[in-house]
Structures are given as structure tokens and as C-alpha cells.
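Q: Here's a chain of 272 amino acids. Please give me its 3D structure as C-alpha cells.
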Amino acid sequence: MKRNLFIIFITIFFMSESCAGKKESGTIVCLETTYGNIKVKLYPETVKHYTNFLKLVNTGFYNGLLFHRVIADFMIQAGDPNSKNAQPGAFLGSGDVGYTIPAEFIYPRYYHKRGALAAARQGDQTNPLKASSGCQFYIVEGKTFTDFQLDSIERINAQKLEGKLFQKIVSAKQDEVKRYRLEHNQPRLDALRDSILAEVQKEMKNNLSYKLTPQQRTDYKTIGGTPHLDGEYTVFGEVVEGMDVVDKISKTKTDTNDRPIMDVKVIKAEVE
């Protein structure tokens, strides 16, 4: 009898240790919403987003806030503090907490597959470093893509990368560009341009970050997502339970500002 009790105790002890280990590898937050519960796993590698989101959850920041921007087959967005007790029809989305979070792109490991949890942010013109909102987040619903569509996205990504590389090299050679322009030395400018383009092409051959991984292609073709957002917004978690709730929210009727006509709330957010 004593031996059996000892075995039971040891079993329970190691089961508890195992559960603790799982929590360390990805904390689970439950979002209780008007339509049901959504459980998200946070990625510890995105340290700043992970810590900030948990801080806001633990202080009750999200309790009572609305999903203020909802677009079917795309995403559902929440976290605007101005949405709490907002009047029907009021424009939402500009509320924040007074600080931003530096971008944490763990790419291509984490990307915008269906169910991805990511941070909203201001556009590139006012936010070239792609810093995240201190509180607003979205969950990807997305849609599926064909190989042809994914090839097109890769070409767009390649063009963006070429542009960035070109600007980077030109900036490093700005003194030469200015000197040749002042001298009205067009042959030198043409030669410099050609050398920069050659350097860009060389770097493009060694930098394949614009290409989708085989896993990305599989996910985007089968479960779906929003691949055009990859590398633009920080993905810091994913839905592990409740995607049916995300789908329900995404299909609600909205006004011209994508706000649901009937309020959809985060009733309560808590760490499990």
C-alpha cells in the first residue's frame, strides 16, 4: 500500500513538472469574448512583446475592450483603450498607451499563417522602423493561396528587397554621387550607377529572405493566412484553441470603418 502511494506521488510530481515545462515554452492567454473563448500561445522569443502583453493582461487592460476592426478573410483587431464604453458608430483605432514596442521579427520561423497573433502599428511613413503599438493586436483569419499567387508575392518581396539594398548602397556612396553631380560628370555617374546595380544583384543572389519557405507555402496553400504582412508586422503568438470564434467574429456585420455594428468585446483576458 505504501509503495503504491509512493508511486502515485512520484507520478503526480513529474506530471506537475512536465506541465510547468510546457508553460515556460509558451504561455497561454485566454481571451473570453462575446462569441466564446480564444486561447493564444505567446512566443517567448519575442521578449518585449511577450512581456508587454502579459503585463497588460495581468493588469486587466484588455477587459471590456472591443474588437474595433474586423475584416472577413483577413483579421480581427482589438486593444484600443478608447473602445471601452465607446458610443455606437464612433471611429476607433487611434487609441494607445503612449509607447511603442521595437519590432521583433523572428522570421521566417514565425509568420502570418491562419491564427497568428501579431501587433498592430502605424504605417511606414511615420514609422519606418515598424515599431509595434504598445497595446493593439490582431489575429489572422486570412485565406488560402495558389502557387501562382505565392510566386507573385515572392516577386513583390524581391522588388522591395532590391529597393532597400539599392538605397542602402547609394547612401554609403552619397559623397561620390554629390561630387560627380557637382562636376556634371555624367560618365562617372553612369559608371557608379552600374557598379551599384551590380552590387545589388550580387547581394540578391546571397540573400534569399524574399523567398517563402516550404512550410510557409504549405500553410498558405492549405490553412491560409496573410503572407503579404510577413516581415512587416511582429508576430508574437498564435491561436491554439478557438479559431471558430475568430471566424465568427470576422463574419459579423460591420460599418464603413470595419467596426462591428453590434459590439464584440474582450470580456476578460487572463493567463492560464
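Q: Can you summarize the key feature?
A: The CA atoms of residues 16 and 245 lie 30 Å apart.
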